[in-house]
Write a structure and sequence with these properties.
With 1427 residues, the protein is an alpha+beta fold. Helices cover 71% and strands 8% of the residues. The relative contact order is 0.13.
């Protein structure tokens, strides 16, 4: 079971946030906390309540006032925390830590609850485990861990002082509190949710039943569609078999036809071969003629073929010799050409090298002139002096190049630079004089001696400039060092003076601060004189004498003895009172039982009247169903009578329900049939509309049926125009008949004209006959047309006529045949087009016929189903009215049955109460407790003993007060003496400190004056040194600036000179490099090579001109031999073509013999045509089967689409699912009704039992605590709101019994009665609901209580503690400022045995903080004996 162990507080209200936390340990079974008003006692209850529930005190919804105010501490924010160590319901120790923070904003305070912590110990490892939680999580978890709901903890266990009288508040507040305690709201919401859910499920069941009926109709229709689909599939299989058989016959006929086709093809191939051989004979003859014409000389008559072949063989050898000679000459010609090309490339390379040398020469001359100008510029600018004679080359930074400069004289040289007669020093002007007046084309070369002399002058000038710069830098550094040294000496002197002044200022400041501190300490307290000390010593001595007198009072020894005597008498009286109370309790128990028996009898009569009233209200309905409405006189027969009536009503209800079910089944069957017929009608109507729409689409001009009709009309018109009306097609002819007609016409057209090939063969035969007449005599020959003999004079005419007829362009026979062929071709194309249109439209035509037949088949069934639907709809309306009437009767019987079931339950309750009455009467009759004693006498004796005990306790209280007064007086006298002695000692110490401070201030004043004189002297020494230092600084800056300017100038001169010297060095390097490369000699060599190259090119061109005539002669000779060879080859080919013609004539004779040997060559074409006709008949049959199959396929697709629509897809599974869902949902609705009824009854019983337990405890506590005579008893009354169970709620009120009358206590009781009633009710609630937690806290329970009721409360609490002390977790926390009540508690607890008295109590008081002088709440433990 749960309990609280220790609480620590920091930063809450008056508890300091900076000092150590205040801790209080809770004792078993009692913890008393005492303190004056405003010391912080209630803060402990608030902290306990916040720790376990997270609820802030009343009036602190935002929490700013719950935490210590930051303003009082001059801080921006203050943090507070509360730690509570408790034992959870499982017996495990835990610690909860809650932290808060209040921050001061600009205009307001803001409160923030920080995350809390729960610490516990792992039972397995023994380690401490800390878990951080949000505040809302802690608010849920802590009550669960303690095993008590949050409303109980908030309003009962840790109830705030301002909220302690809530049981007597207005009705709305009281109802909310009790609803939270009983948790009624949550269960009422649960009941309402169950009821709504049941209604929802009932509605869903109705909807599901309707959906199930619709799906059943769809299921029936789907079964019909499946049967149609199976029949269509069977028909499709039969058609497929027919098509397969037809395909087999077609294949057999095609095989037979292919045999005849092979014979025809073989004959055609032979004819083709014969024609090809005839053509090849003509080609061979024509080729031979053309070859003869192409030959320059015809040698076929002079020489044989073998002789010509031999001549060709020897001719090839001669040609090969000539070709080899020509090839050799051409190879030599190409070699010479390549040599000329190579010499040309060499010439170009030499010219490029010459141009390069010329450019380098020009650059060299330019460099010489630029060097001359640069040397003249340097000599004039830097005043260089040259020395005569041979001089050693000087170095210029290690980069100038020595050597020979200008020792080679050019052809363009005008002279050299001379020297002086004496060979001594010369001016640079003498060198430059010889250079004056030169033109741009003049080339000057400087000798090596002159260049060496000039370079030496440059080196010397460089050394002079460097030396000048170094000398200047040395002098400047020396001057600067002297000035810097003087400035440093002055700065050192000035720094010494400054440090001394700083030291003196620090000493003066320190002395002034000490002096000021002494003055402040002297002014902060009153000046102590010697006389004041003497006076204080006298007062302290006098106070000490008074304290000794108070401590030696004899009365302080007598009072404890009198208290012990009174306590002994009280102990004896307590034993007697307990015996009398037990006896009174036993006697009152039977009195309560009698009252309970009377109450039960009144309840039985009241409930009987209720049953009679209900029967009277339902009299007409009961009479309608022949049910007796009277009850027997004996109450014991009520249940049997009501049971009979209820059974009668139930039987009538079940019978009527069966009638309703039968009517509903009829209605359902009719509805089902109506739905099936309606679905079938909808299906047929939709199918009919679809077929009509399909018929309309098939009737469009661009569809097959219209096309076939158009073809028939056009063919009839064409046949009429061409006089073929006897062979035209009929208007209603079948498409296959039309196709056969067109096919026959196409075959007839092809037979009416000869092919151009046969005409060509006939003309060739006649032409051959004409050619034969050229070969010999014409006797015995006749014309093949008129059989007239052909004379010699007619041969030429015959030959010319045959030639004209054989002409493919101008032949009259060919033209006539072509015209006829063109007409027949157009006719065939027209018939072919019509046949193709009819073949392409066969499918649409067959579909049109099929759709038309289906429309005719569906129109009658649709009309019949519409008539049936009207009949079924009328039947459905009649059955619906019948069901409505039966449903009304069932509803009436249902209501009556529910009423009778309720009455049966009420009668059952009456029966149970009668049994209780009987049992209680038997128990009262057999009990003999207190039979020989008078209850009133015992109560009067008990009252007398209680009064005597109270008088003794009052005496003890008076003695305690007297003892406390004496102790207080003695303590006050001792405290006063100690305070005076302490004050005297403090005055003596203060007087001594004042004397020492005066002496020290004088010493400090003298020191400060001396130090200030020294500071003035140092100021006088400082000024001249600063003036000297300033002058030296100015001189140093001026010198540095001057030196920098001169140094920059010298650096510029030196840098310019070095740059010019480097440029001269670069010129010398380039000139030396050119001279060393010997470019003039290379140019002369290139000129010689160029001349030699030109001579070689001239020689090669001359050789090429000599070879050209030889090559041309050889080519001409070879060309003539090629023409001669070609003539030989053409003569040989003439022989070959003549031989080939003879071979082809022999092969033609063999082919004619092969045609005569082929079997069936005469009737193969007729048999082939007969086989073709059979195949066409079979194909027609197959096409008709294909048309039927397409129609059946469309029907199958349509049925499948219907079955795949949303209405019929998975209809069986959907029907099964909704049937299962309907049954399951109905079962759920029934179960929810049962759950609702069971939970409602359980809540009613639970509420009644708890109210009875609470009132029993209230009655016992009230009789024990209240000492007035006006209120006999108080109790908590609860009544249900509303008659409907679905809206059941409870009202609560506290009533008091005065005599035999009950009235509301709120507004009719005094403040003390209200406080006492609230405490009693809270104790009863704690006793009832705190089964897992034995903690109870009372904050200022004696408010508004007089002495008697205060004492009664102490007695009741002591008795509760004594009774509950056996529980290890029982804890009562009392917070009070009333020390008398604490004394009463001590006295009462001391009179009981069986438990340990607490060792200490806790005192809360305000104590001053040593750090800031403010007063904070402190908790101190005080021994229990000091009360």
């Amino acid at each position: 079971m749960a309990s609280i162990n220790k609480l620590s507080i920091r930063g809450v209200r008056a508890f300091s946030p900076d000092e150590e936390e205040q801790v209080i340990s809770f004792c078993f079974p009692l913890t008393i906390i005492v303190g004056s008003n405003g010391c912080g006692k209630t803060t402990i209850i608030e902290s306990l309540k916040y720790a376990v529930t997270g609820s802030l005190p009343p009036g602190n919804k935002s929490g700013q006032a719950f935490v210590h105010d930051p303003k009082s501490m001059n801080q921006a924010s203050v943090k507070a925390n509360i730690k509570l160590r408790f034992t959870n319901r499982a017996g495990n120790p835990m610690v909860v830590v809650r932290s808060m923070e209040v921050t001061q904003k600009k205009t307001a305070l803001t409160f923030k609850a920080l995350d809390g912590i729960i610490r516990t110990t792992d039972p397995e490892t023994g380690q401490r485990v800390s878990l951080s939680h949000k505040c809302t999580e802690l608010d849920r978890q802590i009550p669960l861990l303690m095993g008590v709901s949050k409303p109980i903890l908030e309003h009962v266990v840790f109830c705030h002082q301002e909220d302690s009288s809530w049981p007597l508040m207005e009705g709305a507040v009281l109802k909310k509190r009790f609803d939270d305690i009983f948790d009624s709201t949550r269960y009422a919401k649960a009941l309402e949710a169950i009821r709504k859910l049941k209604n929802e499920y009932t509605g869903v069941v109705k909807d599901l039943k309707a959906d199930q009926a619709g799906l059943a109709a769809h299921k029936k229709a789907a079964e019909g569609f499946r049967e149609e689909l199976d029949a269509a599939k069977s028909q499709l299989e039969d058609i497929d078999d027919t098509i397969t058989n037809t395909d087999e016959h077609i294949a057999a006929e095609e095989e037979e036809r292919d045999k005849f086709q092979k014979v025809i093809d073989e004959i055609a191939d032979i004819h083709t071969r014969s024609d090809e051989i005839v053509q090849q004979i003509d080609i061979a003859r024509a080729t031979a003629e053309s070859l003869r014409e192409a030959c320059d000389d015809d040698w076929t008559k002079k020489h044989s073929q073998e002789e010509l072949v031999g001549m060709l063989a020897t001719f090839d050898d001669k040609i090969e010799d000539d070709e080899r000679e020509l090839h050799k000459a051409k190879r030599e010609y190409k070699t010479v050409q390549k040599d000329i090309e190579a010499l040309g490339e060499e010439k170009m390379r030499i010219n490029a090298d010459l141009a390069k040398c010329t450019a380098q020469r020009e650059q060299h001359e330019k460099d010489l002139r630029q060097r001359q100008d640069h040397m003249e510029k340097m000599g004039n600018e830097y005043e260089l002096q040259l020395e005569g004679g041979s001089m050693t080359q000087g170095s210029y930074g290690g980069s100038l190049t020595g050597g020979t400069f200008g020792t080679q004289q050019s052809a363009l040289s005008q002279g050299t630079v001379g020297t002086t007669a004496g060979g001594g020093r010369r001016s640079i002007d003498s060198v430059a004089t010889g250079l004056t007046g030169m033109t741009q084309d003049t080339l000057v070369t400087i000798s090596g001696d002159d260049m060496t002399s000039f370079l030496n002058a440059v080196s010397k000038k460089d050394a002079e400039l460097r030396s000048e710069k170094e000398e200047f830098q040395r002098k400047a550094e020396q001057e600067q060092d002297d000035l810097v040294k003087k400035v440093s000496e002055l700065q050192a002197r000035l720094s010494t003076i400054q440090n001394e002044k700083t030291r003196l200022k620090a000493k003066i400041e320190e002395a002034l601060q000490e002096s000021q501190s002494l003055k402040s300490s002297g002014s902060s307290h009153q000046k102590i004189r010697k006389g004041d000390i003497d006076e204080a010593k006298k007062l302290a001595a006098k106070a000490r004498q008074e304290a000794d007198a108070a401590n030696s009072d004899a009365r302080m020894t007598v009072i404890p003895q009198e208290i012990r005597e009174a306590e002994d008498k009280i102990a004896a009286l307590k034993g007697q009172i307990e015996d009398d109370q037990r006896l009174v309790t036993e006697m009152r128990k039977h009195e309560d039982e009698l009252r309970e028996v009377q109450m039960l009898k009144r309840q039985v009569e009241n409930e009987r009247e209720v049953i009679e009233e209900v029967l009277k209200d339902e009299n007409s309905a009961l009479y309608k169903y022949q049910v007796d409405t009277t009850l027997g006189e004996d109450n014991g027969d009520i249940y049997r009578s009501i049971e009979e009536k209820a059974n009668t009503v139930n039987s009538a209800f079940m019978l009527q329900k069966d009638k309703l079910d039968a009517a509903e089944r009829k209605l359902s069957d009719t509805q089902k049939r109506l739905t099936e017929k309606s679905s079938l009608h909808s299906h047929n109507a939709r199918q009919l509309n679809q077929l009509r729409a399909q018929m309309q689409g098939l009737s469009q001009p661009n569809r097959g049926h219209a096309k076939i009709e158009t073809v028939i009309r056009e063919s009839q018109k064409w046949d009429l125009n061409h006089s073929k009306s006897n062979s035209t097609v009929g208007t209603n002819s079948d498409p296959q008949q039309i196709i056969d007609h067109f096919s026959q016409r196409i075959a007839d057209c092809k037979e009416e004209y000869d092919s151009p090939e046969s005409i060509s063969r006939t003309i060739k035969k006649l032409k051959k006959l004409a050619k034969n007449t050229d070969a010999g005599s014409a006797r015995g020959l006749k014309c093949p047309c008129c059989l007239k003999a052909i004379t010699a004079d007619d041969i030429n005419d015959f030959k010319e006529t045959m030639r004209e007829l054989a002409d493919p362009v101008n032949s009259a026979i060919v033209k006539m045949d072509e015209a006829l062929a063109q007409d027949r071709k157009e006719e065939v194309e027209l018939y072919t087009k019509w046949r193709s249109d009819v073949q392409a439209s066969v499918g649409d035509y067959l579909e049109f016929k099929r759709v038309n037949n289906e429309i005719e088949n569906l129109e009658d069934p649709v009309a019949n189903v519409e008539t049936e639907l009207k009949t079924l709809d009328e039947q459905r309306k009649e059955l619906k009215d019948e069901v409505s009437n039966e449903q009304a009767t069932v509803t009436e019987l249902q209501t009556l049955n529910d009423v009778m079931n309720r009455l049966r339950d009420d009668a059952s309750k009456i029966s149970r109460k009668l049994s209780q009455i009987k049992d209680k009467e038997l128990a009262i009759g057999t009990s003999s407790v207190g039979a020989n004693q008078d209850l009133n006498g015992i109560e009067r004796a008990l009252s007398s003993k209680n009064k005597e005990k109270e008088d003794l306790m009052n005496d003890i209280s008076s003695l305690n007060k007297e003892s406390s007064s004496l102790n207080k007086r003695a303590k006050e006298a001792s405290d006063k003496a100690s305070q005076l002695e302490k004050s005297t000692k403090a005055k003596e110490e203060q007087f001594e400190q004042d004397q020492q401070a005066t002496v020290r201030k004088n010493e400090l004043s003298e020191l400060i004056n001396n130090w200030r004189d020294e500071e003035t002297k140092l100021e006088d020494d400082d000024k001249p040194i600063r003036r000297q230092l300033h002058g030296k600084d100015v001189d140093l800056k001026r010198l540095r600036q001057t030196n920098k300017t001169e140094d920059d100038r010298l650096n510029g001169v030196l840098n310019d000179f070095q740059r010019d010297a480097q440029m001269l060095d670069d010129f010398n390097v380039k000139i030396d490099k050119y001279l060393e490369s010997n470019k003039d000699e290379a140019q002369r060599r290139l000129t010689d090579d160029l001349n030699e190259n030109k001579e070689m090119i001239t020689e090669k061109k001359k050789a090429l001109r000599d070879l050209s005539p030889t090559v041309n002669a050889l080519e001409k000779k070879l060309d003539d031999q090629s023409r001669h060879k070609k003539n030989l080859q053409n003569n040989i080919k003439v022989f070959q073509q003549v031989a080939k013609e003879k071979d082809l004539v022999a092969e033609k004779a063999k082919i004619n013999e092969e045609i005569e040997l082929i079997e069936g060559s005469d009737d193969s074409q007729a048999k082939y045509n007969a086989a073709n006709k059979k195949i066409r008949d079979l194909e027609d049959k197959r096409n008709r089967a294909e048309g039927r199959r397409n129609g059946v396929k469309d029907q199958v697709k349509l049925l499948k689409r219907k079955l795949n629509t949303e209405d019929y897809k998975n209809i069986d599974e959907r029907h099964r699912q909704i049937m299962i869902k309907t049954i399951a949902t109905g079962t759920c609705a029934d179960d929810l009704g049962k759950y609702y009824k069971a939970l409602d009854n359980a809540l009613l019983r639970y509420h009644g039992m708890k109210i009875a337990d609470i009132n029993k405890i209230i009655r016992e506590l009230w009789s024990l605590t209240y000492k007035g005579q006006d209120i006999n008893n108080i109790q908590l009354v609860s009544g249900a709101e509303g008659a409907a169970k679905s809206a059941r709620s409870y009202n609560y009120r506290v009533v008091m019994t005065k005599g035999t009358s009950q009235m509301d206590m709120r507004g009719r009781c005094s403040a003390g009665q209200r406080v006492l009633a609230s405490i009693v009710i809270r104790l009863a609630l704690a006793e009832t609901f705190c089964l897992n937690c034995g903690v109870m806290a009372l904050d200022e329970p004696t408010t508004n209580l007089d002495y008697a009721n205060k004492r009664g409360l102490a007695i009741a609490l002591a008795q509760i503690i004594a009774t509950r002390a056996v529980q290890s977790n029982f804890q009562l926390v009392i917070i009070t400022h009333d020390e008398d009540f604490v004394s009463m508690m001590k006295n009462e607890l001391s009179a009981h045995t069986g438990f340990n008295m607490p060792e200490r109590y806790f005192q809360v008081q305000r104590e001053e903080c040593a750090s800031d002088g403010k007063f904070y709440s402190k908790i101190n433990a005080v021994d229990w004996d000091e009360i």
